[in-house]
């Protein structure tokens, strides 16, 4: 579910996975499936992780739409949840950020910061389908998307029709097939009427994946409450503060973090709409998060 532009960056041409205008069928502008896709596209096998040298292009810091991205030097321990989109015929055969030609029928993907090439396991949290893809492109850069999948990968995950899916992405490699489990701490939701002294570390009730719009994260309680109250006045709700402990100093210590979030969201489309509303209120970096 993307449209992409060739973006000129010093010494690097990036083919970016991003979009602006939605069409029926879950994709953007004039992108989409080919007129006669292979009948067995849903049976295309996973990418097989293997040791590869980093590509000569696509692995240096770059800027898109005023934001600078610094690619990771390694993938060990990478795991993240977010929104996946896909891109198809409009870019089939075009050059990717790694310099390779994009093949919509290969098990590949675009990511903003993972090394090129690298391999990730992508699981659809809504139907539990999973694939392994090879990351060889940069993007997506619009609409809070985490990863942009090839047509074949999207078909395997069952997101062609909707254009997006709620996914978990984890790094895989030949020498580290099992990714590191990131240490987490109990979360607690603080409703609008709560006071600072009411914070506790009681675990949240177990539930399926939910979408929220995160509009800010602060180390100071007062700053989080100030933003929450402003958004309440602007009718951007339901808005709450989520308190959690996070690891600092390479995990040696923990600190309290106060995240201001709106939701839960009914859909990815609602998240996109609220992101635009937040930008109008002076919050340009609001993003959809998945828990």
Estimate what percentage of residues fall within beta strands.
Answer: 25-35%
The largest pleated sheet is described as: 6 strands, mixed, barrel
Total of domains: 2
Sheet/helix structural class? mainly beta
CATH class of the largest domain: Mainly Beta
Could you state the order of secondary-structure elements as H and E?
Answer: EEEEEEEEEEEHEEEHEEHE
Unreliable residue runs: 1-25, 177-190, 192-206
EC number: 4.2.2.-
InterPro entries: RlpA, RlpA-like_DPBB, RlpA-like_sf, RplA, SPOR-like_dom, SPOR-like_sf
Protein name: Endolytic peptidoglycan transglycosylase RlpA
Membrane topology: Lipid-anchor
Walkthrough of the structure:
The structure is a single chain. The chain is mostly beta strands and 291 residues long. The protein is built from three helices and 17 strands. The longest helix has 13 residues. The N terminus is likely disordered.
Write the SSE topology.
Blueprint lengths: L5 E4 L2 E4 L6 E2 L3 E2 L33 E3 L2 E3 L9 E9 L20 E3 L7 E7 L5 E8 L7 E6 H7 L7 E8 L15 E3 L20 E8 L2 H13 L5 E10 L4 E10 L5 H13 L6 E4 L1
Parallel strand pairs: 7-11, 8-10
Antiparallel strand pairs: 1-2, 3-4, 5-6, 7-12, 8-11, 9-10, 9-12, 13-15, 14-16, 14-17, 15-16
InterPro entries: RlpA, RlpA-like_DPBB, RlpA-like_sf, RplA, SPOR-like_dom, SPOR-like_sf
Membrane topology: Lipid-anchor
Subcellular location: Cell membrane
């Amino acid at each position: 579910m993307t449209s992409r532009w060739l973006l000129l960056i010093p010494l690097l041409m990036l083919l970016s996975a991003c979009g602006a205008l939605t069409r029926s069928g879950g994709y953007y502008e004039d992108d989409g499936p080919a007129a006669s896709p292979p009948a067995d596209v849903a049976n295309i096998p996973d990418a097989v992780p293997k040791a590869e040298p980093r590509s000569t292009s696509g692995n240096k810091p770059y800027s898109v739409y005023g934001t600078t991205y610094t690619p990771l030097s390694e993938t060990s321990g990478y795991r993240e949840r977010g929104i996946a989109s896909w891109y198809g015929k409009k870019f089939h055969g075009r050059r990717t950020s790694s310099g390779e030609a994009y093949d919509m029928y290969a098990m590949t993907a675009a990511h903003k910061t993972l090394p090129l090439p690298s391999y990730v396991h992508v699981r659809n949290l809504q139907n539990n389908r999973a694939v392994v893809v090879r990351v060889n492109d940069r993007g997506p850069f619009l609409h809070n998307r985490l990863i942009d999948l090839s047509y074949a990968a999207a078909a395997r995950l069952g997101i062609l029709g909707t254009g997006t899916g709620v996914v978990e992405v984890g790094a895989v490699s030949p020498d580290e097939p099992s990714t590191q489990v990131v240490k987490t701490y109990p979360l607690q939701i603080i409703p609008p009427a709560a006071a600072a002294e009411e914070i506790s570390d009681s675990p949240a009730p177990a539930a399926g994946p939910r979408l929220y719009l995160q509009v800010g994260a602060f180390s100071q309680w007062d700053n989080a409450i100030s933003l929450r109250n402003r958004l309440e006045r602007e009718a951007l709700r339901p808005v709450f503060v989520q308190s959690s402990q996070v690891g600092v100093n390479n995990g040696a210590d923990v600190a309290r973090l106060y995240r201001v979030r709106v939701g839960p969201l009914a859909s990815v489309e609602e998240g996109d709409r609220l992101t635009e509303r937040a930008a109008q209120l002076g919050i340009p970096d609001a993003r959809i998060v998945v828990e």
